[in-house]
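Renewal narrative, Specific Aim 1. Our central claim is that a sequence can be written position by position from structural information alone. The example that follows is taken directly from our test logs and has not been curated for this report. It begins with the structure tokens describing the chain, in the order in which they were read.
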């Protein structure tokens, strides 16, 4: 019997819930990326975390991050190369509450939710 899936910690929901190619597409030609897959792409490729740091922030194992990241990259490639619409939705995740991260980094610097609060205060 497989272990139950663990909830992945995510800083915030994406501001954009999808992307579409310039050409017209029918609704059947799409790729769905889970929010936790989006978060691994954001943390590793955009923020520059290692897989270990990403795993610590998301409260999951590094091997789990590696699998999620590989699946996310395949979905991105499929959408870009084949001109498919990309939707970001669903998955097993919990939103970040802004605490210090287990990887030793402060969430204030890396968490979208806290960045939004900083902009509101300005």
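The sequence written for that structure reads:
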């Amino acid at each position: 019997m497989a272990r139950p899936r663990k909830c992945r910690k995510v800083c915030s929901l994406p501001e954009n819930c999808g992307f579409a190619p310039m050409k017209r597409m029918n609704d059947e030609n799409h790729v769905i990326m889970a929010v936790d897959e989006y978060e691994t792409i954001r943390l590793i490729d955009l923020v520059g975390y290692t897989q270990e740091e990403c795993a610590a922030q998301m409260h999951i194992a590094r091997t789990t991050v590696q699998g999620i990241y590989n699946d996310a990259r395949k979905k991105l490639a499929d959408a870009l190369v084949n001109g498919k619409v990309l939707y970001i939705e669903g998955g097993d995740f919990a939103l970040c509450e802004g605490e210090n991260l287990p990887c030793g980094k402060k969430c204030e610097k890396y968490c979208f939710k806290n960045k939004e609060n900083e902009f509101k205060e300005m």
